[in-house]
Design brief:
Layout: E1 3-4, E2 10-11, E3 33-35, E4 38-40, E5 45-49, H1 56-68, E6 73-75, H2 93-106, E7 110-113, E8 128-131, H3 139-146, E9 152-155, H4 162-173, E10 180-184, H5 200-209, E11 214-216, H6 218-222, H7 228-238, E12 242-246, H8 264-282
Parallel strand pairs: 5-6, 5-12, 6-7, 7-8, 8-9, 9-10, 10-11, 11-12
Antiparallel strand pairs: 1-2, 3-4
Helix pairs in contact: 1-2, 1-8, 3-4, 7-8
The chain binds phosphoenolpyruvate and manganese (II) ion (MN).
Keywords: Transferase
InterPro entries: Aldolase_TIM (IPR013785), Class-I_DAHP_synthase (IPR052899), DAHP1/KDSA (IPR006218), DAHP_syn_2 (IPR006268)
Protein name: Probable gene for 32.4kD protein (CcmA, required for carboxysome formation)
């Protein structure tokens, strides 16, 4: 028997290959994940900030701008999973320190990526842990996060099916941590008109299969700043509860993902449209 308790503590998993899943709607219709008082799964939550925390002044500046634009959370990479070992690897624990300062300055919770359980000691003051696409099937990391209490933003592996993505969430849930938000960031296919392929059908599928809140990342999915708005709105139309958007105060000179980061002024417009769309969809016509 699998039991799902209201306080998100799970016990006694005997799911098996074909058994019930803790993420499934059989257990509950909808979950809300609380991130330091912010309720993900109610309305539309927006996390915004740079791909990488580059220095103290830039993250403080961007944090103020994204707050003014209407964001609820600050994102920023400190431990960066880069394709090339010669690319900027992030400021590591210094980057987390600057993110904490940004939270103190703005009052907004912070989300940042963890790559390895060994680094967990640096994430004490972080509100939400991100698991990136490249680590989405790092099962030791997922099992480790299942033993913690902190909320997790779990991206899909770029080579995974939507069902496999849900299964990665099960690793965390079955360890006892029910605070999981799934984040869709597209997959790699034959199409190269966008950086990755954003199948909104995967968001629709995830919404139909799981009670967990669903986030979408239109920035990595598109890889182009001029596509971020449409990708964001398409994700909300498909049912996303949250958006994670990369924002930089000087995108052309960003140390990572320069082409997809938008400016704060564009974030404001996207948030306004996305919230209006979410409201429209939540009302009976
Ligand atoms: C990120 O959000 O910083 C990131 C690296 O994204 P992804 O893991 O989706 O590539
Ligand atoms: Mn990035």
């Amino acid at each position: 028997m699998i039991k799902l308790y209201d306080n998100y503590v799970f016990i006694s998993q005997e799911g098996g290959e074909s058994g019930e899943r803790l993420y499934s709607k059989k257990f509950r219709e909808k979950s809300v994940v609380d991130v330091s008082g912010l309720r993900i799964g109610e309305g539309l939550v927006v996390a915004a900030g740079p791909c990488s925390v580059e220095n103290e002044a830039m993250i403080l500046d961007i944090a103020r701008s994204v707050k003014a634009a209407g964001a609820d959370m600050i994102r920023g990479g400190a431990f960066k999973p880069r394709t090339s070992p010669y690319s900027f690897q992030g400021l590591a624990e210094k980057g987390i320190e600057y993110l904490v300062e940004a939270r103190e300055e703005t009052g907004l919770p912070i989300v940042t990526e963890i790559m390895n359980p060994e680094y967990y000691r640096y994430f004490d003051r972080v509100d939400m842990l991100q698991v990136g696409s490249r680590n989405a099937q790092n099962f030791d990391l997922l099992r480790f996060l299942g033993k913690q209490k902190k909320p997790v933003l779990l991206k899909n592996g770029m080579g995974n099916t939507a069902r496999e993505w849900l299964e990665t969430a099960e690793y965390i849930l079955s360890g006892g941590n029910g605070n999981v938000v799934l984040c869709y960031r597209g997959v790699r296919g034959i199409e190269n008109s966008t950086r990755f392929t954003m199948n909104v059908g995967s968001i629709i599928y995830a919404k139909s299969e799981t009670h967990l809140p669903i986030c979408a990342d239109p920035s990595h999915a598109s890889g182009r700043r001029d596509f971020v708005e449409s990708m964001a709105l398409a994700s909300v139309a498909a049912g996303a509860d949250m958006l994670e958007i990369e924002v930089h105060n000087d995108p052309d000179n960003a140390l990572s993902d320069s082409e997809q980061q938008i400016r704060p002024v564009d974030l404001k417009r996207i948030i306004e449209k996305a919230r209006a769309l979410k409201d429209l969809l939540s009302h009976e016509i």
